[in-house]
């Protein structure tokens, strides 16, 4: 039940939601009125479209506008409407992180796909993918486009409580568990090509890459001072350059935490292999490592993109 209207009269939000010929009022939970057009809402939201076609809104205002009571507060409704209103020059940026998450949840609830494509929403999803995913995921619904985007963006971050920190209150167990399972599956897919015994992902057509691996990574030069590592592959022995080998170990650990291609070309993973060496063979070997990491990055992204959410 609403409070006594004499004590808490609704206030109008004002421009740009104050048109005289508007045909419906959206009233926020904190009693802010937005004078808007049904046609615009219907175009942006299948939920409003059905609502307007099925029944009259719950109340009417003094000057006979229909009123739709919303559970979202005024600042959230404003950000939501500015995202779908044509020719609105005001910022669509939510003022607080809590509002930004509430806007994503409202856009999901009202099925407003365009909201997920504006810069403010994309930035929130990109920078806070775990919290955004939790706001957008429901175990009872199909995964929407925005939730998929958030899940994919989350792969660039470690899924650890320390990383979520004080934003833990914006998460929930169902969604975190779903995301955790996705991360594990992506890590398993990402680690496969980071192998010193199985390079079957490199096809015969990739001659540049084969050249890189077999003439630089798998070193055949002989120098008793060089630190080379023997790896048995089938009936043959490969002589891996240890600087490559240590890179592979760091790369495997990296995709265990962040299952994305960028993890293996990150300076923290590459740099320790770039040590001074007097041996020309080892020096040449390392010159090829960065290029190899980019091939590996592409292969990992290709594999991870196939993992079902
Ligand atoms: Zn050497």
Automatic annotation (TrEMBL):
Gene3D superfamilies per UniProt: Potassium Channel Kv1.1, Chain A
Location of the BTB domain: 22-85
Highest taxon of source: Eukaryota
Matches recorded under InterPro entries: BTB/POZ_dom, SKP1/BTB/POZ_sf
Pfam (any one): BTB
Name listed for the protein in its UniProt record: BTB domain-containing protein
């Amino acid at each position: 039940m609403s409070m006594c209207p004499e004590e808490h009269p609704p206030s109008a939000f004002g421009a740009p939601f104050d048109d005289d010929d508007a045909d419906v009022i959206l009233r926020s939970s904190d009693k802010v009125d937005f004078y808007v057009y049904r046609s615009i809402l219907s175009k942006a939201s299948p939920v409003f479209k059905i609502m307007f076609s099925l029944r009259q809104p719950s109340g009417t205002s003094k000057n006979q506008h229909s009123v739709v009571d919303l559970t979202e507060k005024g600042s959230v409704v404003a950000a939501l409407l500015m995202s779908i209103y044509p020719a609105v020059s005001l910022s669509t940026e939510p003022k607080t992180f809590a509002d930004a998450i509430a806007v994503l949840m409202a856009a999901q609830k009202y099925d407003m796909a365009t909201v997920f494509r504006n810069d403010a929403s994309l930035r929130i999803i990109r920078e806070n993918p775990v919290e955004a995913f939790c706001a957008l995921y429901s175990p009872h619904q199909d995964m929407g486009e925005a939730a998929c985007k958030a899940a994919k963006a989350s792969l660039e971050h470690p899924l650890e409580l320390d990383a979520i920190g004080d934003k833990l209150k914006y998460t929930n167990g169902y969604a975190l568990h779903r995301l955790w399972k996705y991360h594990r599956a992506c890590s398993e897919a990402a680690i496969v090509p980071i192998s010193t015994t199985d390079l079957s992902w490199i096809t015969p057509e990739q001659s540049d890459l084969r050249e890189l691996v077999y003439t630089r990574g798998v070193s055949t030069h002989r120098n008793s001072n060089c630190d080379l590592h023997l790896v048995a592959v089938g009936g043959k022995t490969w002589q891996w350059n240890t600087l490559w080998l240590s890179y592979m170990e760091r790369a495997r650990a990296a995709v265990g935490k962040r299952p994305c291609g960028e993890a293996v070309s990150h300076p923290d993973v590459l740099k320790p292999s770039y040590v001074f060496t007097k041996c020309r063979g080892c020096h040449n070997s390392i010159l090829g490592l960065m290029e190899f990491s980019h091939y590996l990055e592409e292969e990992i992204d290709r594999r991870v993109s196939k993992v079902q959410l």
